[in-house]
Amino acid sequence: MTDTVFGPVTDWATDFDHGAPEYNANIHEIWDTLKASGCPIAHTERYGGVWLPLTHDMVHEIAYDTDHFTSRSVVVGQLKPSQVEGAMPAPIGGAPPISSDPPFHQHARRLLLPAFAPKKIDPLREEIRQMCHDLIDKMGDKDVIDAAYEYAQHIPVMVIASMAGLPKEDGDIFRSWVHVILEGIGESREEREPVFLALNEYLEKAVQEKMENPGDDLISFLLDAEIMGNKLSPEHVRGTIILLMVAGIDTTWSGIGNSIWHLATNAVDRRRLVENPGMIPMAIEEFLRAYAPVTMARLVKEDYEFHGVQMKEEDWVLLPFPAANRDPNQFEDADKVIIDREENRHAAFGLGIHRCIGSNLARLELNVAVEVFLERFPDFELNTTEEMVWSTGQVRGPRKLPLRINARA
Amino acid sequence: MRYPLSAFYARCMRVHVDPSKCQGHNRCYALAPELFDVDDLGNAFELNDGVVPAALEDKARLAVANCPEFAITIED
């Protein structure tokens, strides 16, 4: 287990490190310990100061409060945007619309919304189904597989590449970039720099190609789009494409992996879904609640007192939707996974104006991926002879998910 | 006091989506497409002036219980 540049954590209430590998691996124990010690908001000096509120009420309040909190950067890093030369200022930010604040935010978001509305997304079902079957066909007759590496990770990459109009074969490169952007937050700048350069160079070329040969894809659409009569700046277009990759790949990969992990470790639930595939959509919502992959971040706009703590201008604030989803004041039996839970107002896709724009797509991918997996592998369990590995950073899911396949159809 | 039987038949459940609260999570449309629809931006609205046929009352309650933004209300 490697530490981040900050070294080992001494105390999770006052010195936490959400970029350390043990955070995601032990996340529920860590939250329980914090809550039991009467600490609803943890703090760390790492990354230039980060707050971690743990209740649904507080997460909800911050997500709605765009007056005191800015989205200019939503992934905690070692540098604040103000320390990065050439970083796009608020209210636009580096990856609109996720990095944007009102009033600009709604213009940038409105532009993208139609492409991700349910009626645009639903027709992708068969294409995704075929991708899932192809991935399982490729596994052959192996009894031991890695469901994160051989299955979950490929599905969102292929879908996003197809929507953006980029070659599906480039999926491996996208994944390696996204990995460094999201999981490498605790690594040194020297290690990360070359990745950002390569990503920029790739996008520069991709945008150039789409300008010369536009197609029916999101990059061509963005190049042609206007906000209040003005074409989008090249930084805006590049930022939005990076957003689609970063937000569309690790997150859904994690959600699929978390669902399969639960089914590998809970035979009763797995059998129920194999026997009643019609229950899968409801079960997916419960997996999204109990194992929500995404924690967002905000920056404090100006010094602000929040529930008794003094937040300073430019402090980071994490928005752990996964913790909000396990708040007993919001959910009955919050720590139990109940696959036919009827009342489920979970916040896996965020709350307020930044609700995940790809939520319809993510849900479709999750449903189809789990449906096909159970159809082809009605009986499987964790392969405990191999190590399971969780991601690090703000997106939580298995990066190695070794399974033993006991039956195939 | 006794109500005439007709008062029960006249009773009618209605649903309403508050457009200022809806953020397009799309849970209501997924769970009860007979009662809700979404526009091109993915924002939800109630169908049929919100009138819920008796057979769909459970679906209406399910939609309310799954809206993360508490944007849907039921009037009896």
Short description:
Chain A has 409 residues and is of the alpha+beta class. Chain A contains 16 helices and 14 strands. The mean pLDDT of chain B is 91.
Task: Tell me the layout of helices and strands.
The complex is a heterodimer of chains A (409) and B (76).
Chain A: H1 21-25, H2 27-36, E1 41-44, E2 50-53, H3 56-64, E3 69-70, H4 104-112, H5 118-121, H6 125-138, E4 144-146, H7 148-152, H8 154-164, H9 171-183, H10 189-212, H11 218-224, E5 226-227, E6 230-231, H12 234-265, H13 267-275, H14 280-290, E7 296-300, E8 304-306, E9 309-311, E10 316-319, H15 321-324, H16 359-376, E11 379-382, E12 389-390, E13 398-400, E14 402-407
Parallel strand pairs in A: 2-10
Antiparallel strand pairs in A: 1-2, 3-7, 4-14, 5-6, 7-10, 8-9, 11-14, 12-13
Helix pairs in contact in A: 6-8, 6-16, 8-9, 8-12, 9-10, 9-12, 10-12, 12-13, 12-16
Chain B: H1 5-10, E1 13-17, H2 27-31, E2 36-38, E3 44-46, E4 51-52, H3 57-65, E5 72-75
Antiparallel strand pairs in B: 1-4, 1-5, 2-3
What does this structure look like?
The complex is a heterodimer of chains A (409) and B (76). Chain A has 409 residues and is of the alpha+beta class. Helices cover 45% and strands 11% of the residues of chain A. In chain A, the strands form five sheets. Chain A has a five-stranded mixed β-sheet, covered by helices on one side. The longest helix of chain A is centred in the middle third of the chain and has 32 residues. Chain B is elongated. The two termini of chain B are 20 Å apart. In chain B, strands 4-1-5 form a three-stranded antiparallel β-sheet, with helices on one face. At the A-B interface, α16 of A face loops of B.
User: Got a strand count of chain A?
Assistant: 14
Please write the string of helix (H) and strand (E) elements of chain B: HEHEEEHE
Helical residue percent band of chain A: 40-55%
> How large, in whole angstroms, is the Cα Rg of chain B?
14 Å
Helix fraction of chain B, binned, reads 25-40%
Biggest sheet strand line-up of chain A: 1-2-10-7-3
- Strand line-up of the largest beta sheet of chain B: 4-1-5
The SSE order of chain A reads: HHEEHEHHHEHHHHHEEHHHEEEEHHEEEE
What is the count of helical runs of chain A? 16
Structural class by sheet pairing and helices of chain A: alpha+beta
The pLDDT mean of chain A sits at 94
- Which regions of chain B are unreliable across 5 or more consecutive residues at pLDDT < 50? none
**Beta-sheet strand percentage of chain A?**
5-15%
- Structural classification of chain B: alpha+beta
